[in-house]
Amino acid sequence: MFRIKKLDIFIAKQFGLLFLAAFVICQFVLMMQFLWRYVDELIGKGLSMDILAQFFWYMGIMLMPQAFPLAILLSSLITFGNLGESSELTAIKAAGISLMQAMRSLIVITITIACISFYFQEVIGPRAFVSFQQLLLSMKQTNPEVEIPEGIFYDGIPNSNLYVQKKDMDRGVLYGIMIYRMNGGYEDAAVILADSGRIQATVEKKHLLLTLYSGEWFENMRQSNINVSASVPYRRETFSTKKILLDFDGGFNLAEMGGISSDARSKGLSRIIHDLDSIREFNDSVGHQNFREAKLLTFLRPSLVKDDSIRVKKEVAGKSAMYDSVYHHLTAEQKQRIVTQASNDVQMTLNNMDYKAEWAYWLNREERMHLMEAINKFTLSLSCIIFFFIGAPLGAIIRKGGLGVPVIISVIVFIVFYILDNTGMRMARIDEWTVWFGKLLGTVVLSPIAIFFTYKANKDSTVFNVDMYRSIIMRMLGLRTKRSIMSKEVIIDDPRYQEDINRLAAISAQTTSYMEAHNLLRWPDPIVVFFRPGNDKDIAKLYEELEETIEDLSYTRDKRVIMLLNRYPIIATHAHTRPFRRKWLNVLTGLFLPTGIFFYFRMIRFRFRLYKDLQNILRTNEKLIARIGDLYIK
To answer: Taking the CA of residue 433 as centre, how many other CA atoms within 13 Å lie in the half-sphere pointing to its CB?
Structure first.
């Protein structure tokens, strides 16, 4: 039965305080990063404090589920890092409490936070998103003189489209102005061109005053008694300065929800699933309709040729009209008319296909966005648990508290997750990857890492042992360290010099015999190397005897002998025969050609190195025997 113990309360208190502090920091960082996207909507709009407060409030609520995982990662890292640094974690383990038992209170807290995160995404988040987007849209429609972009048409002013080639914000001047006014519809449109101008809101913020310089005004003069088919008169006016008053409510008014409510981010899970079925059904109906239209589409139309002397009738039941023979009997004028009509039909068909393709892409994108949002509600909540099982074991392994190493590790882990999650989301959104693969990429990559760290921390294994990884890399690359033997400060027994001389002489004889029996400069047979078992036991035995002799002679007081002992190489006793000690690894390496070539040439390098090492041993043995004989043999 689960009982709350003092240890659980102690660890939970430390974690809780750190979590609150980390959550505030993470929330602030995320809000600042998010704020840069909308800084143009806030500056120069004259917004009141209550509007700005609502803006930041809705933004904070939307970003809370993203701040939870990072706060859990950082706080769990610092919590167990502090416990390990102060040796409290060692005392806990000495009392017979495993790491998982020490973590159980935090596991319950983390699961609770994950549930809170899911509740925010399911209930509070969609409402905050709708309010935030409605507020943002209303802010964009405030003071359009700041919002008008360069190089594109701006339709934020009712019944008007405004194009500005360039803006001078310091002087408040717009250059290259083009205005389309459609007060009475497209048939009564007015086109206004101006070299430059200024735009400002009136005092009551109900109208916009445009002051235009050096321009022209083109306007249709449509009247009710004029026939539609007749030419519509127009007027043209050239002006040096002209002022135009446009209706525009520049005060802050909440915009209509419109398409905001149809966004997947504004829906809960149950509504997403319901709407997803409707979207798929509608997409299928559109696809079937496009397919039926494509089957009925004919690229040759019998109505292209209409002449009293030539009549073309489209035959049915598998028969086809002789269009080529008919075309050759036409006049030049008729041929030109037919080619022009066919070209127009082809262009119309292509435009229709492009439109249908874009429409189908948008419909498919809407379906993917709903599915991605549904998956995101689970993955973002699950990331809280995954980040805990990364942070807590890492803190127990590195045993470093404070804001130094834990912050660096937290940032690295979060950046990796952020890159994977955003990459998967973008690729799934543009239909390059499947939605499930894109949205689960970050979770699938980090889950084995969390399991690995938890296992290693629970078994007290060394994960960040730099010397171990350095040794593995050096062995892989064929690198080695030099022998380092120092003179002993305290020597109880002197080396057995006569016995050592005899052993060195025997080693020299064995080395010479080995070099005569084995041609190390010859390239070995790859089949023997990768697919047949065998180790070089002679070298292993020879090197073992040499090490025993070096160990005995290391207790000498003569510095010259110490120097000669350091000349002996450190030999790899099996790398010149097989890439690995295990047979199945050699077989796999040999079957995979690129890896097999690498390890084959690596083994050849070890054979050449062994040849030089054996020659070095012979020279050193000769010098060492002579030195010992001169000093100690009487």
So the answer is: 17
Dihedral, CA atoms, 199, 201, 207, 210, nearest 10 degrees? -20
Q: How many residues does the chain have?
A: 634
Query: Can you give the pLDDT at residue 118?
Result: 93
Residue partners of 520: CB distance under 8 A and separation at least 6 = 576, 607, 608, 610, 611, 614
Other Cβ atoms closer than 10 A to 66: 18
Give 302's strand partners: none
Which among 267, 259, 27, 258 is positioned nearest to 125, based on CA atoms?
267
* Strand, coil or helix: 335: helix
Residue 446, token pair as written in the block: 């980090």
C-beta atoms surrounding 440 within 10 Å: 20
Half-sphere exposure of 541 (CA within 13 A, CB side): 9
Q: What separation in angstroms does the CA of 472 have from each of 467, 544, 631? A: 9, 22, 41
Q: How many CB atoms lie under 10 A from the CB of residue 193?
A: 16
Q: How far are the Cα atoms of 311, 326, 338, 339, 623 from residue 334, in angstroms, in the given order?
A: 13, 11, 6, 9, 109
Structure tokens at 374: 């549904």
pLDDT digits (tens, 9 = 90+) for 521-576: 888 888 777 877 767 788 888 889 999 999 888 888 888 888 989 989 888 877 77
Token representation of residue 66: 């993203």
**164 in Cβ contact with 149 (< 8 Å):** yes
Structure tokens at 623: 């010098």
Tell me: pLDDT of 336 over 60: yes
Give the C-alpha distances (Å, rounded to integers) separating 277 from 335, 355, 430.
Answer: 52, 24, 21
E-assigned strand segments in 60-203 = 153-154, 160-168, 173-181, 190-201
Distance of CA 583 to the CA centre of its chain: 39
Q: Check residue 325 and give its pLDDT.
A: 66
| pTM for this prediction | 0.60
Per residue in 121-177, pLDDT tens? 998 988 888 888 888 777 665 555 556 778 887 776 777 788 888 888 777 788 888
Asked whether the beta carbons of 160 and 179 are under 8 A apart, the reply is: yes
Beta strands, E only, 527-620 = none
Task: Give CA–CA dist 264/435, Å, rounded.
Answer: 14
List Cβ neighbours of 185 (8 Å cut-off, separation of 6 or more).
none
The structure tokens listed for 404 are 């130094």
Q: Which tens digits make up the pLDDT trace of 438-481? A: 889 888 999 998 998 888 888 876 666 656 667 767 766 667 77
Cα→Cα distances 370→134, 278, 367, 419, Å = 20, 11, 5, 21
Question: Three-state secondary structure along 356-370?
Answer: HHHHHHHHHHHHHHH
Q: Which of 575, 504, 489 is nearest to 539 (CA)?
A: 575
Beta-ladder partners of 201: 208
Q: How far is CA 451 from CA 264, 386, 444, 455, 561, in A?
A: 33, 9, 11, 6, 52
623: number of Cβ within 10 Å: 14
- Find out whether 163 and 154 touch, Cβ atoms under 8 Å: yes
Q: Fill in the amino acid letter for 231.
A: S
For helices 49-85 and 332-398, angle between their N-to-C axes, nearest 10 degrees? 40
How many C-beta atoms surround the C-beta of residue 162 within 10 A?
Answer: 24
